[in-house]
Amino acid sequence: MDNESETQVDSSASGRRDPGWKYGRLVNEKDLNTIICIFCDKVTKGGIYRHKQHLVGGYRNAKKCRKCPEHVREEMEEYMSSKKNQKEQMNMGSEYVNEDLFGLEDEDISEEINSRTNITNISSGGSNRGGSGGRTFSSKKPRQKGPMDHFFTPNAKMVVQNQRSGKMNQTTINDAYKKEARERACTLITRWMYEAAIPFNAVTYPSFQPMIEAIGQYGVGMKGPTFHEGTMFMQSIDASSMIKTGEKMFELLDKWVEQVGEENVIQVITDNHSSYVMAGRLLELKRPHLYWTPCAAHCLDLMLEDIGKLPNIKRTLERAISLNGYIYNRSGLLNMMRRFTGQRELLRPAKTRFATAFITLSRLHEQKNNLRKMFTSSDWSDSKWAKEQKGKTIANIVLMPSFWNTIVFCLKVSGPLVRVLRLVDGEKKAPMGYIYEAMNRAKDAIVRSFNGNEEKYKEIFNIIDKRWEIQLHRPLHAAGYFLNPEFFYDKPEIEHDAEIMSDLYKCILRLTRDPAKQEKVVAEVSLFTNAQGLFGNELAVRTRKTRAPAEWWAAYGASVPNLQKFAMKVLNLTCSASGCERNWSIFENIDDSNEWLIGRMEDEDSHGGAQDDFVFDDDNLTWGDVARAAGAEEARFDTRARARASSSIIPPTRGIVSSSRTLPSYSLIDEDEDGDMVDSADEEDGEGYKCGDGNDDDDDFVDLEEE
Q: Where are the domains of the chain?
């Protein structure tokens, strides 16, 4: 132990950070190459790296230390492994690589990685650096690429042509390393092709080699394309003259299917405008082996829009927009708000107008207590804004119990739908295998948030069911649900659901052209349902919920090749056209959140009028209601009136079965134990706002925000 302590002091004094120095000492302080092991007194001549090989064992160049404690061995092995990964990262970006690099001390390598990256110019003789046997290691900084490189980087296709014509056959001292690096790259490319089930002859396509060359020209750290960036842009067309004509839109879509090749098209996605719906139906009639699908993100946004039109929710949105706009249009008041909220903003722009609305309501709810404290503080009461009529109105909104209670209601019904919107509009995974279950869970969450009280959510379910049944639901969604191993093996009822099975067979008939192959696909379904063949493999069972569905089929579907091809075709599909719109639309930078900054809704001046004004700020009674009650105006039959007259039995969403999984709760501070909205008298305390104890359930809505 004395030797070990002495060595540790010496290594610290000399500034050496490699942990290997703790377990060895130098024979000669001027020779860093010869080290004695403190456990067995074995002398190694190869620097600190060779000494660590001696401690760990298993290396040809060093005999294993028999007396090394196990914890020391593990420490050294872990350290060497991390350093090896670090060196490999450095090598990937180096133009020249020194094979003797691994003989250097690891702390020196760290410095090289952090400061120079490239280690070059190996020569015999010269000065001795680090006791490396008389070899000289000089280094140069990596060449940094700048904006001008854009103009001088050779075209990837031209580079490939020159390589094939033999114009770039010059050899360098790097050839040996480049061969090894190429083999490593080829291994990773091949592994990707295995997992994605890409035919090997794909590498013969003319576009393959220019792709590889372009990646090489980018250099280290290139981020691969996202799910939507894999989208191929073909052409921009001014369709303003034909947008309202279904036949014209059909001709346009059909032309592109013809150009791409019908055999290469599985799905055509458009938004839900009536002309697109007609065009999609006509396209399916003419092209029997593809599907037209409405954009799921657009359908969900329309659901949120319909919910936002309900009188009580619309009034709450108007108040929230007015509150937000008033604060954000006054810099002094905005700074005051930020002091009370801890620099948290109220506005949270999202991908669609109505997602922005409900996510911003979530932000407001999160800052409820802070806003109430602000509008009852001396900072506010002493300000000029507290004396303005508009300021008094805004303060009344913040201190109004019904405003916050309705926000809670809005979040309960919109939160699950915003999560589905994020799923279908995201880029992390193909959503086709998830949307069916996601809609099911969204409805389950809404039911639970109201403790099963149907009167509170039946209007919302009418809106959801209308959009799902008439617009959104398609056979592809049911087929993706059936083929997703994460859900299928947990829910035996899926196999016995007549509608799901009917949609599955519809997809098989439509997407598989050859009748003989159709029969083979159907025959192989039983192997999947019974978890036979590779489906019963331990790895397959263990990764049902951890791997993406299409990847899982690529890995374990070899025993059912026809069904495997069909499953991957379905599960790799998207559900939305929003990714394409983001990539190519000239309108992608238009701000949908302007109404939240202006302080009024877009249609506030053009719809409703005086009859929609509320008689009392804290009630839903309008002057139009008063006029109709007095017989001065004919009654209007709006959504709420129709909902009251409808049957109390709400039909389930088409084809959606009950979820057996436990979903997150949506109980909130503004409810009593029975799920009813809290009476305003019960909610208010003596100071006019509810005091937070830090243990409420406000966090239930935090995950509404976009990641």
A: 19-85, 246-294, 307-572
